[in-house]
TrEMBL record:
This is ROK family protein. Transmembrane segments: none annotated. It comes from the Bacteria. It comes from Enterococcus eurekensis. Gene3D superfamilies: 3.30.420.40, Winged helix-like DNA-binding domain superfamily/Winged helix DNA-binding domain (1.10.10.10). Keywords: Carbohydrate metabolism, Xylose metabolism. Belongs to the ROK (NagC/XylR) family. Transcriptional repressor of xylose-utilizing enzymes. PANTHER family: BIFUNCTIONAL UDP-N-ACETYLGLUCOSAMINE 2-EPIMERASE_N-ACETYLMANNOSAMINE KINASE, ROK (REPRESSOR, ORF, KINASE) FAMILY.
Length: 365
């Protein structure tokens, strides 16, 4: 038991510190050199680590450096939206090796899933990765999924009546999991946070979603609808929402509420925003609605909030303004230092959907 835990400890250290030497392991892990030698040789035999270079020592002998074998296993993450497919390939270090984004209208049909299979084939061939070395394909989508991540239970945005993972696995030839998009993105953003943190991830993308992350895991709620702040009511008798209600947050804070003024291109909206008076007026109204939503989340959960999704990754220049307004809105005089910008700005849903299989693989070492 202890032997295995030493091996895991050595692997974890090398994972977090690529190019580690035996001397560094000895100093930082408080293990004897024979124990480290034995762990290194087991990890090398298992192909989990590789000899990655030499550390040049002044005077004495040069030391071998070790890193994890990033190419040993991969995971694929897919973000399915109404009109696009994004696909990422990540390695054992959880780094993006490559990604593809194509315009493709979703349909729950054989031809759609055959196209997904072709995209997977393309990215694997391009990066010379064998299908056998892919652990899993995690699929994030704007839908509610069950707790075992093998079934869509509500898929109004995509028009899904029923979708089970085994149907997709038949087409893709890989083990698959289905994730709610906001849960995937929130997990991808916070997986390496201290486990005691409770955080709310607000996804401001084509649709608005959210995820409560507690002790490193999404909190799903009693009926899997936790974090669905897109359907809080912002304006009584407001715009019609796809859920059947009126005035929902989704209808005011989804990215298309800004990008519809620039032919669907959010980058152009934010590029032109500083100089465009009409856009400034639109964005000021957006910020008022955002602040109202953030205040409601804070009141219920009293935790840190991450601004994520397409809009969240453009908010850096406006964070101070948002925080000032939020300070004024707070009933208890809380300072809004609990608001953070997302770090994962590229393909956050796909990366978050790809991560669990990599983390499980490492956990089992
Ligand atoms: Zn709604």
């Amino acid at each position: 038991m202890r032997k295995n835990s030493n091996k895991k400890e050595v692997f974890n250290y090398i994972y977090s510190n690529p190019g580690t030497t035996k001397q560094a392991l000895q100093m930082n892990l408080n293990l004897s050199l024979p124990t480290i030698n034995s762990c290194i040789s087991q990890l090398m035999d298992d192909n989990l680590i590789i000899h990655s270079g030499m550390e040049k020592n002044t005077g004495g002998r040069n030391s071998k450096e070790y890193s994890i074998n990033q190419q040993l296993r991969y995971s694929i993450g897919i973000d399915i939206t109404k009109n696009h497919i994004s696909l990422v390939l990540i390695n054992l270090s959880s780094e993006i090796v490559d990604y593809i984004r194509v315009k493709k209208k979703f349909s729950n049909t054989e031809s759609y899933f055959i196209q997904l299979r072709e995209l997977i084939k393309t990215i694997l061939e391009k990066n010379k990765v064998e299908l056998n070395n892919v652990l899993e394909c995690g699929i994030g989508l704007p839908a509610l999924t069950n707790i075992t991540n093998d079934k869509v239970v509500y898929g109004e945005i995509l028009g899904i009546k029923s979708l089970e993972v085994k149907e997709i696995e038949n087409y893709l030839g890989l083990p698959c999991k289905l994730y709610n998009d906001a849960n995937a993105a929130g997990f991808g953003e916070t997986w390496n946070y201290p486990p005691t943190n409770t955080t709310f991830y607000l996804m401001l993308s084509n649709n608005v979603g959210g995820c409560v992350l507690s002790h490193g895991e999404p909190y799903y709620g009693n009926t899997l609808k936790s974090g669905e702040v897109g359907h809080l009511r912002l304006h009584s008798d407001g715009k019609q929402c796809y859920c059947g209600q009126r005035g929902c947050v989704d209808q005011y804070l989804a990215s298309k509420q800004l990008s519809r003024f620039t032919d669907g291109n959010l980058e152009v909206f934010f590029d032109e925003l500083p100089e465009n008076q009409e856009f400034r007026t639109i964005f000021d109204a957006y910020v008022i609605d955002l602040v109202e939503t953030l205040n409601a989340i804070r009141m219920v959960l009293d935790c840190d909030i991450i601004l994520g999704g397409y809009v969240g990754s453009h908010l850096e220049p406006y964070l101070h303004t948002i925080q000032e307004k939020l300070d004024r809105r707070n009933s208890f005089g809380d300072k809004s230092d609990y608001i953070f910008l997302c770090n994962q700005r590229k393909e956050s849903i796909a990366v978050g959907a790809a991560l669990p299989s990599i983390l499980s693989f490492i956990e089992e070492i």
